[in-house]
Specification:
Helix content: over 70%
Largest sheet: 2 strands, antiparallel
Radius of gyration: 17 Å
Distance between the termini: 27 Å
Number of domains: 1
Strand content: under 5%
Number of helices: 8
Order of helices and strands: HEHHHEHHHH
């Protein structure tokens, strides 16, 4: 699991190093999502306080990075739950599609397409890998214990807290439990979607605390639409 996650992040980091820091908005968002959408959100939110002219651009980068993080979720599910992937992917892909439409609309309205990416940390450092390993182990244990003692409600509670800052651990844990038959498909993908919703809320809170007020409005609108669609899928999806 460590190799999988570090490999995904390292792909974005290597591209960032080879391509340099002065890149277009789209590429900045994609690379930011591959490395860490949360770190990208923090970096760009801070920059809007220093330079308010970057507010619209920062909003686009943050939303694109969040789209990539959802795509990353699908890659992780496919990697660790290939048998269950076909059943788990559609509702998650539906939210990804909604996010892409919103990001595309914001991108096309953005007059300036050039941005300088903040310096990124190397995700392959041993410290980073060990921290993820620890988080993954704790989440896997918490998810299994919550499912055993409290049923689906306990599982979803763990997903909410786990998804606040990191989507990888809860995604991999849920997918593994579904693939091994220790939880059902519906509970598995719903836990991942709940974690994603929690992550969107956390990133909006980060923007509210660190970013310009206009950025808060833009991100609040974009993430609000995504959360509403997520809630609809969560409630009405048949499986």
């Amino acid at each position: 699991m460590v190799v999988l996650i570090v490999g995904i992040s390292l792909t974005g980091y290597i591209a960032y190093k080879f391509l340099g820091t002065q890149k277009g908005t789209l590429l900045a968002g994609v690379l930011g999502g591959l490395i860490s959408s949360t770190a990208t959100t923090v970096s760009y939110a801070r920059r809007t306080v220093e330079n308010t002219n970057l507010t619209n651009l920062a909003a686009v980068v943050i939303v694109i990075a969040s789209c990539v993080s959802l795509g990353r979720v699908l890659v992780e599910v496919a990697a660790v739950a290939p048998v269950a992937f076909a059943s788990m992917a559609p509702p998650l892909a539906a939210i990804l599609a909604v996010s892409i439409v919103i990001a595309a609309a914001m991108f096309l309205r953005q007059p300036s397409r050039d941005t300088q990416m903040p310096e990124q940390k190397n995700p392959a450092e041993l410290k980073t890998a060990f921290i993820f390993a620890a988080i993954y182990t704790v989440v896997l244990l918490a998810v299994a214990a919550a499912k055993e003692h409290f049923g689906s409600a306990g599982f979803y509670t763990v997903a909410v807290f786990s998804g606040l800052t990191d989507m990888d651990a809860i995604t991999l844990s849920s997918a593994r439990l579904v693939e091994s038959g220790r939880t059902d498909l519906s509970t598995g993908w719903r836990a991942i979607l709940i974690a994603a919703m929690s992550n969107f809320v956390f990133k909006f809170g980060t923007v509210s605390l660190l970013g310009h007020r206009l950025l808060t409005l833009l991100i609040g609108t974009a993430f609000g639409l995504i959360l509403i669609c997520s809630a609809v899928v969560l409630w009405f999806w048949p499986v």
